Amino acid sequence: MSIPRFWREIRQRYKGIGVECGNCGRVFFPPRSICPDCRRESLGKMNEREIVGKGKVITYTEVHEPMPDFRMQAPYTMVMVEMDEGVRMTGQLVDFEPEKVGYGMEVEAVLRKLGEESPSGIIYYGYKFRPCP
Ligand SMILES: [Zn+2]
Q1: Which of 17, 42, 45, 127 has CB atoms 3.0–4.6 Å from 22's, for a disulfide?
Q2: How far is the CA of 39 from the centre of ligand 1 (A)?
Q3: How many Å lie between the centroid of ligand 1 and the Cα of residue 119?
């Protein structure tokens, strides 16, 4: 994988950048190069769109084994969220009271530090979810 492509994918994955079909307006995350509905009509019309809004929890799970990429403290809670844009995103839930987690809970995406500082001095930031106030 080339370096520029690597960085582009990191940016999309961690900053919640999707694409919007310029033909029908559907939003996709992760980004795709062509709209499955419009196909040829959408060629060259897929525009980057940052997804930072609100959504509702459609499924959640408590994770006891931390993922190797993220040195998160286990246990932590991962949620799948249906965003107002109509796309589904998965992320860690933060700043919540465990007894209030449930399906349909309204959450918003927030920018948080994701990972440890690497040997090159880079700190990774990305989105997490927290309950709407
Ligand atoms: Zn489309």
Answers
A1: 45
A2: 7
A3: 42
